[in-house]
Task: inverse folding
């Protein structure tokens, strides 16, 4: 049995499909979701990664997954059998073997342009000035998450 997973941002679906497990970082800590998990609603940590393990799905618009329903997610699945995505902030809802991840911004690791993100990060850091990691703006945390996702994917 598998989970039905949807990763959605305001501009549309980022990824959807079935998976064995989803791991997300919330304000209360890391959450690992398998089939049969009790209902939960969590607030995603800013600039965190979502791991979708053993996926059988497709990418959303602009994704590299198959155009038809369930199946192999060509180009999105890492050698370890996971889809990795960076999220800025949002919510995770689990109920009835369905995981909905709603994020203000999200991007699959497979589609990160590291040079562009590094330039955005540098500009955001310059604008923010000297701050502690806890005080970093959301844009900085999201850019760091994008770079982590791309680095883990390679």
Result:
């Amino acid at each position: 049995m598998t989970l039905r997973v949807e990763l959605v941002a305001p501009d549309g679906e980022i990824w959807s499909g079935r998976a064995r497990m989803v791991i997300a970082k919330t304000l209360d800590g890391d959450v690992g979701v398998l089939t049969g998990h009790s209902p939960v609603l969590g607030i995603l940590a800013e600039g965190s990664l979502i791991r979708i393990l053993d996926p059988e799905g497709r990418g959303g618009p602009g994704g590299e997954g198959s155009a038809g329903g369930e199946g192999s997610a060509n180009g999105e699945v890492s050698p370890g059998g996971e889809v990795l995505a960076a999220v800025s902030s949002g919510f995770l809802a689990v109920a009835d073997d369905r995981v909905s991840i709603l994020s203000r911004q999200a991007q699959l690791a497979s589609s990160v342009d590291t040079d562009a993100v590094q330039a955005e990060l540098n500009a955001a850091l310059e604008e923010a000035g000297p701050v502690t990691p806890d005080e970093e703006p959301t844009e900085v945390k999201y850019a760091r998450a994008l770079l982590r996702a791309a680095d883990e994917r390679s």
